[in-house]
Design brief:
Largest sheet: none
Number of helices: 4
Helix content: 40-55%
Shape: elongated
Number of strands: 0
Distance between the termini: 81 Å
Length: 76
């Protein structure tokens, strides 16, 4: 059992070191795995959705010269 654990850890560390290289970023294996994940993802309920764009903030051309009335101002 310990041999299996050592083999799994060694395999993970080897893959981790290789996945941080520029060769992995441009490899066909990586692109094929990503395509497979995109195909299989919806089967398990995972779907890619485009992020919603932020709504633009509405700003006025000139600042308001008079302060807005609040409840405290109305009490007087």
């Amino acid at each position: 059992m310990a041999v299996l654990l050592v083999a799994l850890v060694a395999g993970f560390l080897t893959f981790y070191r290789h996945s941080r290289t520029p060769e992995w970023g441009e490899s066909g294996t990586r692109k094929a795995v990503l395509r497979l994940m995109v195909v299989l993802g919806p089967i398990f309920g995972m779907q890619y959705r485009e992020p919603r764009p932020d709504l633009p903030a509405v700003t006025s051309v000139e600042p308001n010269k008079e302060p807005l009335l609040t409840m405290r101002d109305d009490e007087d």
